[in-house]
Amino acid sequence: MPPKTTSKKPPAAQSQQTEYQAIAAKFAAAKRAKEAQDAAKAQAAGVTKAAGGEATAKKKEQKQQEDRVSLADKQRAALEAKRKASFESRWLWTAGFWVWMLLIHVVGIAYFTSGFLLTRLMLDDKSVCDAPPTLNTSINGAVDILPNWKSKGTVDGGCWHPKTFERAVVVVIDALRYDFTVPVKDDAPFHNAFPFMYDTALASPNNAVLRPFIADPPTSTLQRLKGLTTGTLPTFVDVGSSFAGTAIEEDNLLMQLRDAGKRIVHLGDDTWESLFPGYFQANLSRAYDSFNVWDLHTVDNGVIEHIFPLMKRKGEWDVTIAHLLGVDHAGHRYGPDHPEMAKKLQQMNTFIKDLASNIDDDTLLIVMGDHGMDSKGDHGGESEDEVEAALWMYSPKAVFGRTKPEYVTPPATAKTRPVNQIDLVPTLALLMGIPIPYNNLGHPIEEAFVGPRGNAWDKLAAAERISAAGIKRYQTSYFSARGIEQATTTGSPADLWEKAEASVPTGKVKKGHSWEPVFEAYAEYQKETLDYSKSLWARFDVKNMIIGIGIMAAGIISLLVYINKRTEDDDALVIEDSELDHAEKSLELQGITADEGHYLEKRLFRAAMLGAVPGFFGGLLQSYLSGNGDWYRGSAVGAFTSVATVLVALHDAERAFFNVLPNTLWGWMAVVFTVSQSIGFASNSYTIWEDSIQLFVMTTFGIATALSAFRMESLPDRYMAIYHSILFVLLGRLASFSKLCREEQMPYCTSTYYASATSSTSAPWQLFIPFVAVMILPSIIKAYLTPSKSYEGLAPTWIGQVFRAGLFFSAVYWVLDAADNGNWLPVISSRLSAYLPNSATEALSTLPPLPEKILKTLSVYTAQMILGLALVAGSTAFVWAPPCISIVTTALRRAPSSKDDPLAAIPGAQQTAQVTVLGYGNAHGARYLLLPLNFFVALFLVSKPMGAGALALTLWQSLSLLEILDLLSLPIGSNPIGPIMLAILGQSAFFKTGHQATLSSIQWDSAFIPLYSIKYPWSPILVVLNTFAGQILVTIMLPMLVLWKSGPKRRGILGSVSRALAVFLAFYATEALASMMWAGHLRRHLMLYRVFSPRFMTAAITLLVVDVVALLVGLAGVRVNVMSVAEVFGWAD
Amino acid sequence: MPLVDPVTMSSSAIVKGAVGPSASATKATPGTQGTDSATASTTAGTSSSLATLRPVHIKQTPTAQTVRHALPAALTALYLLRFDALVADPVPVMRNSLPVVAALQMTYALLCLPAAGEPASKSNRKPRPGEKKKGGEIGSSTIITALLATVLTSVVTPFLYFAMVLFGAPFLTHGSHTFLCAAHLALLTLFPLFYVHGVDSAAWAAVAGFRAPFDETFGGLVGGLVGAWLGAVPIPLDWDREWQKWPVTILCGIYGGYLLGRVLGGTLFWGKRF
Fold first, then answer.
1. B58-79 as b/e, with b when 16 or more CB fall inside 10 Å?
2. What segment(s) does the record annotate as region Disordered (chain B) (predicted)?
3. E strand spans, A70-154
4. Residues A553, A492 share a domain
5. How many domains does the structure of chain B reveal?
6. Nearest to A699 among B47, B166, B236 (CB)
């Protein structure tokens, strides 16, 4: 749109006004003059016709004229106030509607999640020392394999099996992967740094055993500790409580130890304290913060400092648990392939060596990893590297044996002879003489029971049998509690149990009887039961899943109908015709207005409430009356009833329900892109390769718009459209070079996000990427504003200086961070001293040393400053900024007017001036752009250098997308393609900023960018900003689809934005619904936890984040923006 | 002054832009030839020609009609015969088959299609006295047009290669795979269009904007592009099939789509527009 020109009187004196008021005043004056002129013209035409040139009449006219002008002023003020109030109330109703939609999404997702994330029935039964499980499970009576031992059935002698040790020291080295502990022929820093355990196991096999230790996923520490103490399988629902750390109520090792009167000391990770509150000797225990992954040494040094004195005070404890976090934190912070990891492992080597030399004959030392780490040092999933930990048991007295001589050498990889982590539970319980926890599913580790000579099969068989009997007892009560029949077919656990029992000889047993088959029979029973339980506890609440899916689907249907409903009534209604505008205004003043108080959103919101409230309370009442206690049923019923009433309200609004199919090529493209991706989630391949598919889709769109541009008649427009289309595609391809491969993509994918595939730090060359963005991005944004003359007002200062400074300091932050991680300062100073003359070096060394952690301090302050600048100062500036326009007045000499000229009636009209409002045509868009830019700075900071570059390209792409849509005339009213492409752009930026739909790709360290330690709620917010940077950016950009190239006279902005938002959210809601449906449908699929379940969680959280950001930032920004523009130019509707 | 053909204005001296002058020559002589409306297809105009761009008629000679049906069959046969070898080792197969496909397309163009600047269906018309009979036989000018079309085809191939990279084809590896695939795409879909339309910008704007009417050439283009696009769909699947390797599925899509588009464009959809 060209700059609007209008004539007005020479500018009046304006002295101490603010810029804002000045612009408003200027424009108002110009407009008034224009209207007065128009009115005068009309008047004069009539006058000249009727009365000719009578002087008295003219004077009268003039008087009337002035009266009319002042009356018009008053009327205008009243009208403006009315329109403003109307806008504000309409905004509230619209926001209310979107809050309702958010609630629908929350309820739908929560319902599905409650049925999908696995639950296991918890039994309250506890094992008791003098009641071995063989009592009630054994088929052929209480035949014992072992002869009675001294103090049988008591803790002193061993409850169910002869006791071996008095005390135990359990050392958990978090994330100790198996290959860290065995010799590997390469130079990786994480290999061969921790040889002590391997060497002792090899040199003195009777004293030490080293075996791979396989975790049951999910491999988060809290889940693992539950497994390691209860001996049962984790379920996914526990992950949700991973951050809150709730106490374990099930029977577990520590509970048995405590009940047996053992004193337990705990050192290290405070997760233990939250799982076992009150279990530990308060005077000896030391707990340390577990989530501070930035800190490699505090926990380890604390444990090492306190554990050695304990070894001297043997009378004060029976079990010591030490949990070290340094290896895990080094993995999270640097990845395994880093010198820090080697240092950490060497430290552990020394520590375990020293500890072993302090252990006495009655004490068992166990060292283990609770899980492994993937190639980047993260964990949580179920890849091989994540589940393969190491287990080492040690005692100075000869206890351990091998059933075969070749087992003396610890396995070279974790694939051979692995031990399940739950197997530690019966092993430790039997060695310590306490009962095996009731819910245990593991079986004893053979090395600990087969005797130093490796031939005590009777003891091994007895241990195996007692734990198998425990499993049998547990299974029986579990099945009866759930009311399920156990299968008795051949090969079923029940069948195997009978066979194993039958293999136990009755009556007098001959000396030299072979107990090995008995052991094998029980071991087979245990293995089968474990497999069976794993499949059994993949038990889903299908009803809740279907309700959740139903709510989400109903929400999407109402979104689609809402989108369709608004097809006609909005869209680019620009009233430039001042007479029509005037006529409308006078109608409004007389109170005859078209839709006063009848906004669609108002009706919808009321309908939603009308449905939700009775539904909610009805559901509550029903669940109360039926007495089955699912009080949350009310929310589901409320969701359904409110969707129903909203649909009815939409139907009342005279809209056919089935008219939702698109009618243009672009509309179909939007549908195909959305639906094909949703269908693709049914296949693990398409889910795994989603990043490539996003690129393919975006390129398809760009090529289609470029080809479509050939249909344009105007050659300049055609070339601009082709240029922007190709730019859009090129930038997308360029950004796609930044990627982080998920494990399943290997070996067809190369990660570029970090310095190497086994690191989580950036390469030095990547630090330059943000600086490149600093140099070019502000100029690029300027280039998009200049054609519409919108680089005016606050824009040059804000974009050219503040925005640039924000980006610059973000880039500096990452340099500081890299210097801190890479320990550059000592390196630099040592290099320097090599070049400097000796005197200079001496002079340098006399300087006071730099304070400890100076770099971290500096970078934290930098980050806090940037966030303050971007979010606090930025939002303030956005609220107060005048539109990005400026008013230029140029003198315009009029030809001397004739006597008949009606303008002669207006004083000073002869010396009119040309007033040009620069940026008029893009008044809405240019101003609103400041808001996404502010948030961009924050997102730019929290993304690592590679991701920051990808985000900058995404911003650039989104600006090109705006231009393409504008040039091809694909306004949001008639076409859903704009919001859909923006949504796809955001989704694709998610992958380009180093994320994948897997738990292990979450960049937890982003929580520490502006902080030293975890602080709620800031840390989770930072992780969300980092993870969903792409989606958040495009969500804030979304209103630009409506506002870009919109002048002040554009009507129905709020309606159009709301509609664009509906399309945009429909995309994300469809993705969430589809991933939900497929995850539910494929709940027995092998890849459920690796592929489908993480994809569902990603989609669900994305949807909620987008909902909230759209509401709190997008809609609020539109409100501020429209009011600011209207304050200057007057209300358009 | 070199000798100039009075009808096509083409001569051995005109190397650059042989099609352009010939187009203007056709425009200059509509009166003499103008019984057939298909001549309008080569009139170089501005936007008005978008509406008047006519579908290409296949020559009516028996040879042309035979070749028209035989060649798709030949291409299909070639593709099916070489498929196993293609899956085993794509690059040599694509490279060695390129001249064969080029020869087949060349034959098709020369025998069946009206060359750029040449009125389409001259065989319907009696040769006037003194004028050389042109339609049924292959004149030197049509061969030049065909050669120029070949040159143009090879010129656009790098752009197609680049477009494939933009769609996500490997950038640093598999260069010859992608390039040969682009060459096949260009040879199949763009070569006939270059032969028919030359460098007539208005015609090309219509083709690029997908406003051209369907005929064998345009149908082939649409089919080939859609086929190549759909060819990417099976690649990510974890079926571990040998034929999922790059760029076998794309090439398969290109051939399948092109042949289908060419046949449908020449029959069922002929003359229709998007």
1. bbebeebeebbeebbebbeeeb
2. 22-49
3. none
4. no
5. 1
6. B166
Does residue A264 share a domain with residue A226? yes
Q: What 3-state DSSP class applies to A627?
A: coil
ipTM of the prediction: 0.79
Residue B86 lies in a domain: yes
Residues A921, A850 share a domain: yes
In a domain, B238, yes or no: yes
What total number of domains does chain A contain? Answer: 2
Peptide bond connecting A2 to the previous residue in cis, omega within 30 degrees of 0:
no
Choose the final residue of a domain: A490, A519, A539.
Answer: A539
CB contacts, 8 Å: B211 with chain A: 710-711
Q: Do A710 and B232 touch (CB under 8 A)?
A: no
Q: Would you call B273 an interface residue with chain A, using a CB distance cutoff of 8 Å?
A: no
- φ, ψ for residue A104, nearest 5 deg: -60, -45
Q: Are residues A784 and A914 in the same domain?
A: yes
Q: Is the pTM of this model over 0.90?
A: no
Minimum Cα–Cα distance from B238: chain A residue: A685
B165 near A CB under 8 A: yes
DSSP for residue A898: P
Q: What is the domain-level CATH number for residue A341?
A: 3.40.720.10
Q: Point out the residue among A685, A696, A700 whose CB comes nearest to the CB of B238.
A: A685
Q: Determine contact: B238 vs chain A, CB below 8 A.
A: yes
Query: Is the Cα dihedral B140, B146, B152, B154 positive or negative?
Result: negative
Instruction: Provide the β-strand partners of residue A365.
Output: A169, A394
CA distance B200 to chain A (A): 14
A696/B237 touch (CB, cutoff 8 Å), yes or no: no
Final residue of a structural domain among A539, A571, A596: A539
Of B167, B208, B238, the CB nearest to A710: B208
CA torsion, ordered A735, A737, A740, A743, to nearest 10 deg? 130
Identify whether residues A482 and A598 lie together within a single domain: no
CA–CA min distance B168, chain A (Å): 6
Is the separation of the CB atoms in A617 and A634 below 8 Å? Answer: yes
Beta carbons within 8 Å of A569's beta carbon, 6+ residues apart: A1052, A1055
Chain A residues within 8 A of B210 when measuring between CB atoms: 707-708
Strand partners, A210: A392
Distance from CA of A694 to the nearest CA of B (A): 10
**Domain interval for residue A596:** 78-116+543-661+764-980+995-1129
Amino acid occupying residue A1121 = N
Q: State which residue of chain B sits closest to A731, comparing Cα positions.
A: B166
Tokens at A889, concatenated: 């007045």
Taking the Cβ of residue A747 and every Cβ of chain B, the question of whether any pair is shorter than 8 Å is answered with no
Residues A250 and A310 in one domain: yes
Same domain, A553 and A534: no
Chain A residues touching B205 at Cβ < 8 A:
710
CB spacing of A685 vs B211 below 8 angstroms: no
Distance from CA of B236 to the nearest CA of A (A): 6
Interface contact A689, partner B, CB < 8 A: yes
In a domain, B271, yes or no: no
Q: Which domain holds residue B192?
A: 19-266
> Do the Cβ atoms of B238 and A692 come within 8 Å?
no
Task: Give a yes or no: residue A82 inside a domain.
Answer: yes
Contact A1035, A986 (CB under 8 A): yes
Tell me, yes or no, whether A676 lies in a domain: no
CB contact under 8 A, B229 and A700: yes
Q: Note whether residue A723 is domain-resident.
A: no
**Tens digit of each residue's pLDDT, chain B (274 residues):** 333 333 333 333 333 333 333 333 333 333 333 333 333 333 333 444 445 678 888 888 888 888 888 999 999 999 999 899 999 999 999 999 999 999 999 999 999 888 887 654 444 444 444 444 444 456 678 888 999 999 999 999 999 999 999 998 888 889 999 999 999 999 999 999 999 998 888 889 889 888 889 999 999 999 999 999 999 999 888 777 888 888 899 999 999 999 999 999 988 888 888 7
Is there a domain that residue B3 lies in? no
Q: Looking at the complex, does the CB of residue B47 fall below 8 Å from at least one CB of chain A?
A: yes
CA torsion sign, A371 to A372 to A377 to A382?
negative
